[in-house]
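chain and backbone:
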Amino acid sequence: MKGYFCLVLILLSSLYSSAANHPYLYYLGIENGLSNNAVTSIYQDKYGFLWFGTYEGLNRYDGYRFQVFRNKLNDPASLIDNRIVCIQEDAHHNIIVGTKKGANLYHVATGKFSMIRFQHKKEIRNASYAINGLARDDRGNVYIATDGQGLLVYGKDETIAKQVLFKNGSTLSGSYHIKSIKTDRQKNIWLYIQEYGLCLYHPEKNQIIPLQDFAMDVQCIAPDNLGNIWIGNESGLYKYELSAKKLSPYSRHNGILLSNTVLDLSVDQDHKLWISTDGGGIIIYDIQRGKSTQLKSGKEPGMLTSSAVTTVFEDKDQRLWIGTLRGGINIIDKNKTRFKTINSTPFKASGLISNFILSFCEDQHGNVWVGTDGEGLSYWNRKDNLFTSYAHQPSKPNTLSNNNVAGMVRDEKNNLWMATYGGGVNLLNPATGNFQHYPCFNQVTGIMDKNAWSIYQDKFKNLWVGTCSDGGTYRLNTASNKFELFDAKLKNVISINEDKQGVLWMGTFSSLIRVDVKNKKHTFFKLNTAVRAIYEDKKGHFWIGTEGAGLLLFDRRTGTYKTWSQKNGLSGNAALNILEDDASCLWISTFSGLSRFTPANGQFKNFHEMDGLQSNQFNYNAALKLKSGEFLFGGIKGFNLFRPEQIQPHSIEAPLLLTDLEINNVPYEQDDSFEDKKSVFEVDKITLPYDKAVLSVGFAALEYSSPNKISYAYYLEGWDDAWNDPGINRTVNYSKLPEGSYRLRIKSTNAEGKWLQNERMLLIEVMPPWWRSYWAYVLYAIGFAGSIYIYLNHQKRQTALKYQVELAHLKVEQEKELNEKKLGFFTNVSHEFRTPLTLIINPLKDILNHNSQVDAKELTVVYRNARRLLSLVDQLLLFRKSDAENLKISKTDLVVFCKEVYFCFSQQARSRNIRFGFSSTAEHIDIYIDREKIEISLFNLISNAFKFSPDGSSIEMCIQEDEDAVEIHIKDTGSGISAEVGDKLFARFYQAREKNQSSQAGFGIGLYLVNKFIKQHFGIVSYSSTPGKGTDFRLTLLKGKAHFPGQLIHEHADETPVFLEELIAGHTDLPVRQVQEEVSNEISTDKPGILIVDDNEEIRTYIKQLFIPAYIVYEAASGEEGLAMVRSNMPDIVITDVVMRELSGVELCTKIKEDPHLSHIPVILLTSSSSAEIKLKGIEGGADDHITKPFDKDMLLARVANLLKSRSTLQNYFYNEITLQSDNSRVSKENKEFLEKCILITEKHLNDPDFSIKILADEVGMSHSALYKKVKTISGKTINEFIRYIKLRTAAQLFINSEHNVNQVAFQSGFSDIKYFREQFHKLFGLRPSEYLKKYRKPFAKGYKLNR
């Protein structure tokens, strides 16, 4: 502070000797947002904010804006009164405000005001009396001087103030008036109590000690730490010497020019007394030296805006804040006094003549000539700080020729040469003050060039002048004392300079010119911009200042240059003037400020009006370096004088604070949702609910000298990707932040643009909604776990239920499958019953109907099928017994038992020439079995071996004994079983569908019974088989009887059951006499062909006997074989059984009817079932008839004859179609379409000599043989006859419908031989062509139509 006040005193000391040299003082008032221009108190809090008390509320200032606090009607949380007297800060950094109506406490955290309360005896009262002063000690206690309630002590950690009672004699009173309160460096607390005088308060004793009663009104007091108390009132200033107890008035004879009321007193560290007066400004009195200076008010720059000063306050950065009445706030800032501004003073004749500066020139005495733009010339006597002005006076020829002084130069004779724009060149005689006018006449154009702009004297003392408006360049001829045109080519020269080599350089509005003074062979460098400054620095770098293209570093050898512009840091692209300081830095004036450029590192430092410059805009030519090293730069508001070496960086590191915080558009101070709320300046973490995550944060670096030079950046971690530049906006907004943790980081620069380490951070926690909160997730987890438990429990129940359902469904499916198999089983049984019945009923019917001798052959068939029926009935009984009977265990010699079974099949083996062998590893093997069930098992296995073994093969039955078991093997060399069958072979009703096996199918219960019976004996049945090579069935039975616990055992064998004999009898074939077929020796025959398809050989034989010899009979044992025979033999009719392996009768019928070559062949289905479903399938398959077994042979013969008769009807239809006769016969749609297609094709080729049977077959889409058979079947004709009949039909139509004669009709019908045509026509129609023509043409010519 000492240096600061010295600076102020220096400035003030020159105030009275300087026309316009005032300290840099700037103003803040209601225009800047201050609530009122009557400022009564100033205070700076801990954070750095400045608080201003006014007549109209409290103001907080952050360097950018004022926040105003006022009284609000009926709002107890607002300021109690707008008339502020004093401001102080408590230990918790809340603001205590003294007003005319009491003391308020401003809670920084909540933004609310509350009354200061104090303990008065036994009651609590509000400090509602006028407050005259506030003071704070180093312990954080605040002392409140009231007008009527005495001294109140507001303790550091207390919420209720304590009233200090004043002892007046023997009485203690709290009703006394304290007019002023101050503390000194010795921590004394000084009071001035009305009517009691100066007092001292001792906090330890809580006692007020009266010192001296002056019997006068006092406005303020101030201890000076030199043993004196200074007192101010309406009468002036007084000093009270504590040691001498002497009161002395201070006035003019003491060196203080004071005649006004003293409003405030303060003593600085240098023992200088600052006296704020009402009407006299500020008086600064040096207590030790006894001298004073004064800072007055006035209209001139740098003077106070009001003479009534209420307070002077020094902030932490040594700025002086001066509070005035009516004049707002005045600030003296040392950081803004680096540049001295000299400008015009309208109220003083000795001031600068104009603020629009164009040129400078220093004389030999160090004084400065100042050329202005339009106001003439000023001479500045720096010693006396006086200006002498010169201007053009039209009535006086020896005055300045024009007031626009664009350039000046002093010659070696100290004469001042001036280039004036509009007045040519002027020479000033300083001794006489007269001006001599030098015209510039252009001999080339014959025009007087008046617009002189640039003037320069080179090292050869040549004086050069450049003119504008296409004017030439002139040089002074000292001999003739005239300016002569140097070169007409050098036009519009606006800048001239000389480098160290003596080369003269000139600049124009578009080019840089290297002047050849001797030969006038100049070099032009086209720059396309105005060259305003030319300068070579100490290091030989050649710099060009341009208007619009920035600063150029020009290479004089190559003509190339490097550019520095605004984007590189230059304050503006118009580089008007260039000066170099002792540190080799270039100072460049522009239209946008002043730049200091350091070529060594390419860095710019820019200065502006806020740094103390006259303005941001400087002028052409207005720059000069004085002999003293000072720089002059002129602009539009005067000129600046400074020493470059004194322009030091402004290195104050301002604190960066959050100034505003709004959550969901609610200010932080007003948001009551925060617990333990801190001040917004100290808050470092906030937690937001998800639905209020709308955040607005204001911030500021408290830098009061150059706040607009501070740059900011912010970055929200967790949201932003990089640092953001807010520009001039010092508020950052984020809306709808999702839940999560964020960190808002804010940083700033200093006034020099350097980023500081003052980063401010705010942690932001956005809470999730309740349904996404921690406890919600805990509940979710519990709920989820419970749901999982319930779900698993439910799934467990569902699985059990599903298992039960599936089990029930499986049982249902099994029952359904079983029922289907049973249905199939009984269907097969019925089929098997009906087939033997057919072969029994019909022969017996023939015997009964014919009294002739009985044929033994027929009785043999009847007997064999009767035995077959008995066998089927026995199998059904066995199937029933397998479910109903228990085991009857008896001891049995297994070898003897198996031999008995073996001998039962020996006759069948001999009849079929099958090698049937028996072997055993032991002669006798005792075993416990149910003889009947084992006999049935062995029978089924051996009968299957015979069934599936061809004649001449071999079968073997062998017994092998082990220690604990006996194995019985039944081996054959039959067709074998495929590997895909597996254990399904033992399933109930399962029937293996193997090719090339016996046509006698079973019911699928034999092996099922074997497996069941053996398992009842706790044995095992298995097999191994190779398709085409045979099968080996293996029965494993346990020895002993331990495996039959609790079972009744018979030690003696029962009789052989009757079932075995019956089953054997059913499988014993009687000798069969072969049917002698009548063999025809005819090469061709017209007998109908009939195909019988049945897998039962006896049925085929019986049906065959019915149709021989009237038919040609073909036989097929399967559907596949039958289909092949239909395609190869083309029978006239097909009789097929429905139930057959692989391809059934219905499928065979369908394939025949779907084949266009075979579809005309009638099909009769034979079935054992009379169900409508079987008949419907047959009809859908295209069957022509349906006969149920057992059938009547006469019915079968009649059905066949009827179907063959329908084929004759088809042939008749063809004949009538050819002969054009009426016919009501009904034929199938397929046959009719076939006939019509063949007729159309033939008619299309009537005149085609190459038409042949092959062409007809190709177009119909059939082979030659198939076409022949179908045509023959339908028409009864060969293909050639068929084609000839169609041609004759066409001829008949031509005879009826045309006027052609016989020959013409014959040729048009495709006949080339007339005789042949006549013969064939007569053969078909029964009339010769001429007769046919006479008989039918006349009626038809009358319009009759043919009845077809």
User: Anything to note?
Assistant: Confidence is low (pLDDT under 50) at residues 1-21, 996-1000, 1054-1081, 1339-1348. The longest strand covers residues 740-748. The CA atoms of residues 486 and 498 lie 17 Å apart.
